[in-house]
Amino acid sequence: MTAETADAVIAVKRASNVKALRLAETLIIPIGALIASAVIFSIFLLIIGKSPVTFWQLIWTGGFGSSFSLQNSLQRAAPLVLTGLAFAIPARIGLTMIGGEGALVLGGFASAAIAIPLVLNHVPPVLTLPVMALIGMTAGGIWIGAVGWLRYYRGVNETISSLLMSYIAIAIMNFFVEGALRDPASANKPSTMPIGDAYRVGGIPGTDVHWGFAAGIALALVLWVLMSRTTFGFAARMTGGNPRAAKAQGLPVGMLMVSCCAIAGACAGLAGFFEVAAIHGQANASLVAGYGFTGILVSFLARHNPIVVVPVAILFGAIAAAGGVVQRRMGMPDATVLVLQGIVFVVLLVSETFYGRFKLFQPPSTGDRV
Amino acid sequence: MPFNQFSRRALLKGGAAALAATALPFGSARADTAVVLGIVYVGPKDDFGWNQAHAVSVATLKALPGITVVEEENVPETDAVAKSMESMINLDGANLILATSFGYYNPFVVDLAKKYPDVQFRHAAPLWNKDKDPANAGSYFPYLNQAHYVDGVAAGLASKTGKIGFVAAKPIPSVLSNINSVLLGARSTNPNATVQVIFTGDWSLPVREAEATNALVDAGCDLITCHVDSPKVVIQTAEGRGVKTCGHNASQAPLAPKGFVTGAEYKWETIYKQYADDIAAGTPLPNFLVGGYNNDMLRNTAYGAGATPEAIKAADAAIAALKGGFKIYTGTLKDNTGKVVVDKDYDNYDPYLDGMNWLLEGVQGSIT
Q: CA of A208: how far to CAs of A61, A199, B26, B27, B138, in Å?
């Protein structure tokens, strides 16, 4: 009895030790990668004859240095949290779904379209906005859900189909915005009817940051719990590890894939809703702003962990916010920031190969590891 | 290793400087100039088109005393532009903001103008409405179709076949007016001239613009012009095919040494100079500033090798006429479906023309 208890205690200790080591590994490797990319980029700056010191100063000033700068970063991060989640969830089940852009556009368009009859009939905002959000999420969910369905039931490569579906989604929006649903007043920039100031989603009290950011954080928490603390999440991750084995175990692989894709589409659709309800007040070509594609980078850097998507999105928001200041003060082209993003991305991908390679993070071997 | 030492030092320096920066009021460095002009562009500043035209004009202000110019390029028509403009105000102390892309205006310029009543906002499209919009916002816009009319006059004589090709972005009023003006100009010098138009569907689609140019040349057009954000691809493709070209937005003359005739160009510096002078003199900026050849807001690119002596003579005469108030849309004109769309002489700035949704008879193409 006592020997068994002692064994159990050791096992528990070892498990917590392993957990701590793993956490340290997942923190130190990406942070090291960020530092490495900063160094590489500083060398790039020196080569083109610009001061890295000024550059990093400006990144700080423009991204975080004041309450305005911080809000600027958070506001820019808001859509990226949601589109990051839209890539992360299918990634956990082993799908490379890059169609978040299309789901965002279609979700935004659907919510702007449903708003037209509601606003015209003076349905109060407190009812209209949830309906808009729901329709936006549904449209995005169906769109990407269809990608998952095609993947599982028809064997269509989800990366290609989601990308192509994005183009179709944008074309659908353009078709209606420039045709049947065009507001006649929007002569030179075809748009749907504006929802009006009374129907706009405002800022989180005390800030300029719209509620989409809070919604993104809430959703990130919910999805983190879903993916790591529920049987659904366990089954999804197992499917991601080996779909055949999952199927052999009797898991409903098709249902899991379609669900994960639908969740992803709903996230992107919600981002589209906030673009319409908080930013533009209508649907038009400005919805196609590339948030869906930046979300892919965000998710990769977050290693497809829903919680980590949030700080990574803020980092991207800050880089975008500071990019403007860098342009203005250092006279550098906009592409500078793209170079930085590219370096960060490549270095982080390379750093992926370091997981499990450092002895420091490995638990002491007991000989019974499989 | 020296490499490691260097990087660590750079990092430490950067970190220390970043900490120092938080303590310093960074924006104050620029407070010594009277006018801090912030300008945002939707694309790159060297696009051979719309953005370059603005950037070149704003560059002429940089030499003036008391003016600081801060610029940001590739700013999309999303809340990114609101935040960029706000950042110019908060971090650079900008007191005059020039928003140069159509989609920047509503809601971004309007909302920010309400939020920052002490900052002047001017937007490059005739959208400001004195009943609805804040008094510290405003519009400025030259009617480029007058310069396109001059292009047409020259094209009518420079083209041998009288078939002019037009690569257009979207069938919206400002684009349609340029197409129709090219036709009317060309018809004034060659009554049999036609304009064949292809809409690409968006402002910047280089591949489709090249395809459209080739298709127009294949269809027999021997002179190509366009209305897209950056005419670079259209002009280069046409030059490569050995046909003549007329430009748009900025000077594309260097791109077509053999076939360039002339081009419709904005002269933004007239407006920007006026703003700078007004601020220096302490007079309020005009809220609504539109114009054309009659008030020096346009120019045609210096004639290239493709312009014949007769074409140059006719185009110079057309410019003189426009400066004197010549009207472009006059008499009775039918659209290309046979409907009468112009039944009297319209002033070049008549609001009716701002809502143009037709292509004149003689234009081959459809807006739907």
A: 18, 17, 22, 21, 24
Give me the total of CB pairs closer than 8 Å, taking one residue from chain A and one from chain B: 116
Q: Which residues of B touch A68 (CB under 8 A)?
A: 86-87, 90-91
- Chain A CB contacts of B52 under 8 Å are none
* B84 & B169 share domain: no
Same domain, B204 and B226: yes
- Chain B residues lying within 8 Å of A53, measured CB to CB: 10, 13-14, 17
B44 in reach of chain A (CB within 8 A): yes
B17: in domain = no
What is the Cα–Cα distance from A240 to B218, expressed in whole angstroms?
A: 53
- Domain extent, residue B57, equals 28-137
pLDDT one-digit tens code per residue, B302-325: 999 999 999 999 999 999 999 999
Q: Answer yes or no: is B4 within a domain.
A: no
Nearest CA in chain B to A333: B73
Residue B276 pLDDT more than 90?
no
pLDDT at B11: 44
Q: What's the pLDDT tens digit per position in A268-311?
A: 999 999 999 999 999 999 999 999 999 998 998 888 999 999 99
Q: State the nearest Cα–Cα gap between A330 and chain B, in angstroms.
A: 10
Contact B13 A61 (CB under 8 A): no
Model confidence over A223-237: pLDDT tens digits? 999 999 999 999 999
C-alpha count within 13 angstroms, C-beta hemisphere, residue B105: 21
Q: Does residue B234 share a domain with residue B164?
A: yes
User: What digits encode the pLDDT tens for the residues B221-245?
Assistant: 999 999 998 999 999 999 999 999 9
User: CA–CA separation, A158 vs A148, rounded Å?
Assistant: 7
Q: Do B91 and A187 touch (CB under 8 A)?
A: no
CA distance A59 to chain B (A): 9
Look at A53 and B88 and tell me if their CB atoms are within 8 Å: no
Q: B96 forms bridges with which residues in the sheet?
A: B37, B120
Q: Is the peptide bond before B107 cis (omega within 30 degrees of 0)?
A: yes
Q: What is the pTM of this model?
A: 0.83
B89 and B222 housed in the same domain = no
Residues B107 and B163 occupy one common structural domain:
no
CA distances from A359 to A13, A355, B137 (A): 19, 10, 63
Q: Determine the distance in angstroms separating the CA of B323 from the nearest CA of chain A, rounded to an integer.
A: 27
Question: Within a domain: residue B338?
Answer: yes
Q: Are residues B122 and B162 both part of a single domain?
A: no
Closest-CA residue to A219 (of A347, A86, A353): A86
Supply the CATH number for residue B103's domain: 3.40.50.2300
Q: Is B16 among the domain residues?
A: no
Number of helices followed by number of strands (H, E) in chain B? 11, 15
